[in-house]
Amino acid sequence: MFETSIAGSLPKPEWLAETQKLWPQWRAEGEALRQAKADATLLWVKTQEDAGVDIIGDGEQARQHFVHGFLEQVEGIDFVNKVKMGIRNNRYDAMVPQVVAPLRLKGRVHAFEAQLARAHTQRKLKFTLPGPMTIVDTVADRFYGEGEEGRIKMAFAFAELLNQEALALQADGVDIIQFDEPAFNVYLDAAADWGVKALERAAQGLTCTTAVHICYGYGIQANIDWKQSLGEEWRQYEKVFPALAKSSIQQVSLECFQSHVPMDLMALLQGKDVLVGVIDVASDVVETPQQVADTIGKALQFVPKARLQPCTNCGLAPMSRAVAEAKLKALVEGAALARQRYA
Ligand SMILES: [Zn+2]
């Protein structure tokens, strides 16, 4: 009961990449970089295990960014000529590569770190991939055409590639494949209309557990400012949860603690495992086990005990290592306290 996991990313050690940045520069290249990525992956597998986290991730140590790490292995994308694009409905600008030709995988994307993590933990292993709609929102297009029709075409093209990699990750021994779709909280109608279908295409044929993570973004200033503009009640989830409840995706990871998401929206996810965000990623203040258990207790009004899994609100990538480690411990201790309280 109350199996713990993280949403996905963890801070990169300072010997691997620049710290506390969303698109950090690597500190090495070639074989030295490969070794550093491997070392960092193992470090976080061990740190999660030592903290007592039940479901382990690779911490996304081998990718620069959760979307562009995937795109680097896709043919048909021009990474040399990046352009500035407003992403998440112009919430912030990013330098993004451009789609210029039909999309095809160059080969495996995440075999190295997935197989490495699998070889070094006996616990369940979760692996994250960007969702199709979020990819479309983090790349410029010069091939699929203008407007919504072009976006949909491109999303389904990416969904096919994601599916290839997801099936291969499953064969590597990954237990849970999670697609990250923060864009679902931004393009609400499109998410319910075609975003969930594109997501199902990405998960087609998987027999391992499937999950989707939908959040209000990393704890960076642009997101913190955006959240302040969303008012007293954040009802974005209300649009997409009914479509997800009807979908084949089995788990939904959502933002909860310190957010203005009304708890009762979780009741829209009947039949799904709900990964409740009990750890805030927008603050360095470390949660107490009591706070974590309290959040779990409130969520239990709307999610059955057997379906509730405590998680982080989002990835911890831009935080300091020390804070991230303390938050992992708080997550585990809070879940343990909740087991005593609500068993
Ligand atoms: Zn997130």
Quick gist of this model?
This protein is of the alpha/beta class and 343 residues long. The protein is 38% helix and 19% strand.
Description:
This protein has 343 residues and is α/β, with parallel strands linked by helices. It contains ten helices and ten strands. The chain has a seven-stranded parallel β-sheet with strand order 1-4-6-7-8-9-10. Helix 6 runs parallel beside helix 8 and helix 9 crosses helix 10.
Tell me, what is the CATH class? Alpha Beta
* Succession of helices and strands: HEHEEHEHEHEHEHHEEHEH
Strand order of the largest sheet: 1-4-6-7-8-9-10
Query: Can you summarize the main beta sheet?
Result: 7 strands, parallel
Query: How many beta-strand elements?
Result: 10
Shape summary = globular
For the terminal residues, how far apart are their CA atoms? 8 Å
Helix percentage = 25-40%
What ligand species are in this complex? zinc ion
